[in-house]
Structures are given as structure tokens and as C-alpha cells.
Specification:
By secondary structure, the chain is an alpha/beta fold. The protein has one domain: UDP N-Acetylglucosamine Acyltransferase, domain 1 (3 Solenoid), CATH 2.160.10.10. The strands form 4 sheets. The chain has a 7-stranded mixed sheet with strand order 2-5-8-13-16-18-19, with no helix packed on it. Strands 1-4-7-12-15 form a 5-stranded parallel sheet, with helices on one face. Strand 18 and strand 19 form a beta hairpin. The radius of gyration is 22 Å and the shape is globular.
Length: 183
């Protein structure tokens, strides 16, 4: 075997220089600045404006909007990749001891649906969302505007909650329907 065809297992000085050159380039610095700006906009600033009781656990990848219209109860857990998006004219109230699986989405507004007006310029439909105490929202479930979820309810993974859920009820499906009562 010639020396040229032998695979290298180590980084050479040239490899390190090339990597450093890229990371210190203007393009890379701009990309990092954009990423940092997005992170602060979606994760840090809204959390600072939220009404938070006690010591909740909020994963750093959770995305929050209009934090001033979000309140979070005691001992609650917001998992990775969750989105809690309130709007200017609607609130999201999350109770004590709430568990949110990864990827849960809660949106307090939606697009208008009038015919003859482009979707992207319609007035949004904004409604409050209230989620009670001791509620478990399974992974990748979605809660839409105007919904109230009662204390002790369980939302199955992947469900879309479009109507109110009574206390201590387990729901699942698209749209979410009652499965049974908790015992």
C-alpha cells in the first residue's frame, strides 16, 4: 500500500487551521449571532416575562411566545421541544404539577378562515387556554385555542385537543375523544 492510500486517524495542523478558519470566518460569526438572537427571542425573553410559581423545570429547547400572557403553576415540567405560544390578546394558564411530554404544542391563536381574504392577512382568532392541576400532556400532543383541560386529565401522546376535557378524564386521538375516567 502506498502512503497516500493509508487512511488518517488524526487531525493534522492543516485540519485544525481549516476548522478554526471556518469558525472564525465572518459567515460563521453571523450565523452564530443569528442563532443567539433566535434563542433569546424564543427561549430567554418570554421566560423572563412569564408568571412562574415555585420552581418549574423548563427545558432550554422549549419555545415560548408572549411570555407576559403565560402563567405556570408550581412544580410543573415543560419538556424538550415544547411550544407554548400565547398571543397579544389571549392567555395560557398552566396549573400546578403539570407534566408535558416532549414536543407538546399549545397555541392560543389560530388563523382566520374567511373566504376571499388571503390566509396570511386574516385577523387571528385568539382565545384563552386553561389547563388545570395535575395534568399530563403526552408527547407531541397539541392543544388549540379556547380549550379548558380539567384537573387530573391525561392527554394521550399525539392527540389534538380541540374541545374542553373534563377533570380526571383520559382522552386520545385526532381530534381527542374521551377514552375513560381515571381511577
Amino acid at each position: 500500500m502506498s502512503e497516500q492510500s493509508v487512511p488518517r486517524n488524526r487531525l493534522t495542523k492543516e485540519d485544525v487551521k481549516e476548522v478554526l478558519k471556518y469558525f472564525l470566518s465572518v459567515k460563521s460569526v453571523k450565523a452564530f449571532a443569528n442563532l443567539l438572537g433566535w434563542y433569546v427571542h424564543d427561549h430567554v425573553a418570554p421566560k423572563a416575562k412569564m408568571r412562574i410559581a415555585g420552581n418549574p423545570r423548563i427545558h432550554p429547547t422549549a419555545s415560548l411566545r408572549c411570555g407576559e400572557n403565560i402563567s405556570l403553576g408550581l412544580n410543573s415540567h415543560i419538556n424538550q421541544y415544547c411550544c407554548i405560544w400565547a398571543s397579544k390578546n389571549s392567555k395560557i394558564v398552566l396549573g400546578d404539577n403539570l407534566l408535558m411530554g416532549p414536543g407538546v404544542k399549545i397555541f392560543s391563536s389560530n388563523h382566520g378562515t374567511k373566504v376571499g381574504i388571503p390566509m396570511n392577512i386574516q385577523t387571528p382568532i385568539e382565545k384563552d387556554i386553561n389547563i388545570g392541576n395535575d395534568v399530563w400532556l403526552g408527547a407531541n400532543s397539541v392543544v388549540v385555542a379556547g380549550v379548558t383541560i380539567g384537573d387530573g386529565a391525561i392527554i394521550a401522546a399525539g392527540s389534538v385537543v380541540t374541545k374542553d376535557v373534563p377533570a380526571y378524564t383520559i382522552v386520545g386521538g385526532i381530534p381527542a375523544k374521551p377514552i375513560k375516567k381515571r381511577e
